[in-house]
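Retro notes (design track)

What went well: tokenization of the new backbones is finally stable.
What didn't: we kept losing track of which sequence belonged to which structure.
Fix going forward: every design gets posted as structure first, then sequence, in one message. First example under the new rule, 205 residues:
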């Protein structure tokens, strides 16, 4: 489990295309400290498994399913990425509960800078819109953010200078894809209410 609090802005140092997958080598001095084979590291919000670790770099394999459902397929050598290690038991939950399981991708639609923050508008897939509410939580490229405005096919977030400086959202431009993970609690609530309503409907008959 992650919290959506990015630990460092790393970058891709190598990309190896495989038959139905891809192997990335990524550099991140903070997240690789003490890392070992089998550990999990979130890369732009996608939970990946460390295959090899040497110095301040690690490699991770990404299957076709992940490449199809996330924006990792557009990464190239030099691409900047948000990195986060799993949260430790008993640690503060600085953001919100993040699984590292991307639900879909959105696209940066526009940026509106102001003196002390910046508003970013992001497209929202139709099948995810019901989980996104004003002042609710959403994960964008692995960053825990609060929704400012939620529309039927978009949402906006307000970014402080620290987020702009220390994450990929400071670099994204209109047209760029981003990984989205909605609040898992909303999905569980929907499932439980759906089962309950289905049960009540069956009983009424």
């Amino acid at each position: 489990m992650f919290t959506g609090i990015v630990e460092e802005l790393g970058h891709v140092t190598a990309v190896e295309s495989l038959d139905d997958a891809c192997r990335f080598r990524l550099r991140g001095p903070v997240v690789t400290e003490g890392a070992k084979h089998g550990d999990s590291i979130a890369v732009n919000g996608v939970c990946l498994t460390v295959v090899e670790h040497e110095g301040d770099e690690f490699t991770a394999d990404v299957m076709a399913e992940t490449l199809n459902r996330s924006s990792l397929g557009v990464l190239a050598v030099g691409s900047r990425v948000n990195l986060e290690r799993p949260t430790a038991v008993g640690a503060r939950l600085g953001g919100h509960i993040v699984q590292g399981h991307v639900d879909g991708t959105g696209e940066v639609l526009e940026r509106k800078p102001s003196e002390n923050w910046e508003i970013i508008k992001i497209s929202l897939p139709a099948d995810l819109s019901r989980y996104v509410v004003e002042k609710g939580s959403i994960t964008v490229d692995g960053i825990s953010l609060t929704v400012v405005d939620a529309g039927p096919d978009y949402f906006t977030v307000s970014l402080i200078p620290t987020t702009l400086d220390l994450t990929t959202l400071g670099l994204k431009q209109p047209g760029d894809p981003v990984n989205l993970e909605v609040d898992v609690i909303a999905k569980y609530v929907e499932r439980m209410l759906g089962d309950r309503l289905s049960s009540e409907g069956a009983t009424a008959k």
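Added context from the reviewer: The first helix runs from residue 64 to 69.
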